[in-house]
Amino acid sequence: MIYNTGIIFSWISFSLLIFLFFNKKNLYTEILVRVNLFIQVFLFCLLEVGLFLNDFSLSYVANYSAESTPPLYKFASLWGSLDGSILLWNLCLSLFMYFYLKLYKDPSSNIDIKIFTLIMIFFVGYTVFSSSPFAGCIELATIGCSASTILPFAELVTSNIGRGPNPLLQNHPLMAIHPPMLYIGYVGMTMPFVAATSRLYSRKDKSNSWIEVAEKTTYIPWLFLTIGITLGAAWSYEVLGWGGYWAWDPVENVSFIPWLLATAFLHSAKIQKTQNTLLNWNYILVGLMFLSTLFGTFITRSGVLISVHAFSNGNIGTYLLFGMLIFGLIFIAIGSKNIEYFSKSKKIDNWFGKSGFFVFNNIFLFSSALVIFIGTIFPLIYETLYSRQITVGRAYYDILVGPLLLILLGLMIFSVKLSIRNLNIQKWFNENVILINIALIVTIFTLFLLNNSYILIITASFSFLLIFTTVSNFYKSFRLTKGSSSYWTGQIAHLGIGIFALGIILNVSQSFSTEIELNSFQEFNFNNDTYFVYNTIEESLPEKNVLKLPISNSNQTKYTSLNIFKNSSQQAISSPAVFRSIINDIYITVKFINEDSYKLIVRNNYGVLIMWIGLLITSLSFFPRLRKNEV
Amino acid sequence: MKKNFIIVLLGIGLIIYASTIIASRNTIYYYTTSETENIEITTNERIKLGGFVVEDSVSQEDGFTVFTITDGNKDIEIVFDGFIPELFQENMGVILDGVLDSDIFFADDMLVKHDNEYVSSDGETYDVKSYSK
Predict the structure, then answer these.
(1) Are residues A13 and A146 in the same domain?
(2) Is the pLDDT of residue A314 over 60?
(3) ipTM for the predicted complex
(4) What sign for the dihedral angle of Cα A610, A612, A582, A537?
(5) Paired sense of beta strands B31-32 and B27-29, if any
(6) Number of folded domains in chain A?
């Protein structure tokens, strides 16, 4: 029932989009976009219904959900694997298409909706022709389903039990919301792409309207990417016993690349708007932003991460490469049509004025993105050429990306007050002499308390100076300048980054860990505090067994636990006990439990809370935009 | 216009060149399980060994995690004494650091390849045998 309805409605949506693409009458556009949105919402709900009713005749439900799965994770199973997440992707895309039509539609032509429709056809086409979350099960595996069909009205077999989602997905609610946030960010990058390509395709007025729309539509996905990346980092730190929050893993890298590019674009778009510079560069950035999201999906979903040779197994990889090619060609074709327009781009006059700083900002952000991109694809190229598998070590990113981001931190200090004319460094020193001195004193003061290194000294003084200049600027002139909301958005984001940088440098330079073996009801000393370990408590939930180990220090008791999931024979997942303070966390994970003896890993992690506060502030940078109703 | 374009291209070229050099200095090489038959390893020499975790092979013995990895042609038993990354699961690609001693590999460090598919352990997303040569 759900199987037939789902597949038929996917087809209806597909045909409707084809009709919309070839439709010449503007009259129907809005209705069709609405109907399309309605169908996508319906399909989303339909699969949710399937998940909640445990309809195991659907291959997807049988393979990624189980009767014992708690409701929240049943809901989240929809984006737990590829086929379902494409459904969520389509829903986001139709929502953005609707908002685009309402808010940013080019009144003079219909090209933007056509390009948008083409992108939608591409993704809906995948669920129609290749693999659909509504595919019916035609052959059972021991648990779940091993073969399925995407044609309607087939004879289906129903599995008795489902496999359930991956234990990782079930461990914490954060994991349920982290992927959709990233998807919204990814999918949203379609909007600036459509805005730029369509407006330059049909540009009659030779105005800069494309850059304005592209900038406005970039901010929303940028915000969601920021939140999504933060949640991912928080999840791996707070929930998984990694103790880390960022590992330069390819999957993390490909979410960071669009973020860096979008950040670069948000800056360079600003000076194009006021000074008509960097026209061609901005166009390239918009294209790369969109293509980098396709590339990210390709990297994470095609299987190339396991091995280049796994690539041929899945078809989503080929499909996405094909998409990148098509949209890349459209992008280049429209770009080359406008060469004359791009050549009108003004030169940068003052390299140490506003425009110069923004160019430097772009150089360093773009270089970071490029470096990360190369680090991500290097193992793939190496394996293709030499048939040997390698991975790129963390040192690569530390050597290359670290300094680039440090320079950006330094540049941000000047962002408080930039004029079009060149910066007079003497004057700048005189104006900020008090703040510079305070920052230096605070830095020197912290150095007495910490193990220090050059990197720590430079980063800390930069961050302190950035924080002080931005805060004093807020204090002095927030009320005076009511108009410029995007300026204050930037300032809040910079303040957050300053705080974040302080946290991350503390974390990187100060943290240490140790391994402790002990029995129940024993205590150990760590970092001037005594910790007492009790006995394990066993807790049985429908979907998992939890072994909890209470640990207490002088003030509080926390649990570190091992989660053993039923339906799954894999390793237990451990959750940490975190004794938190603003400066450092004592972070305890259990490595293994043997009767009543335990091996614990105890970490002293500095600056993590400061990092989260910084990222939270950056995510809140949208507030000034609300003030002017400027979306 | 042309001059800027050349500068940008040169810059990008420089970054690509520098990144490639630094990346190739920071690569982590590893042997596949089949390759261990051909290499000469002195006792106690630390090597990195990569492969896929064989289904139903993971167990706990005396505080060590014992499992088997394979590249599709040759299996090697692993005795692991270290922190198991939370992403660790069966069928997943892992790289282990340790010492090979008469067909048993004693490892104390593990890298996992972060895969974005959320399938349960007996899920079918990829087939180990099909991409070993």
Answers:
(1) yes
(2) no
(3) 0.77
(4) negative
(5) unpaired
(6) 3
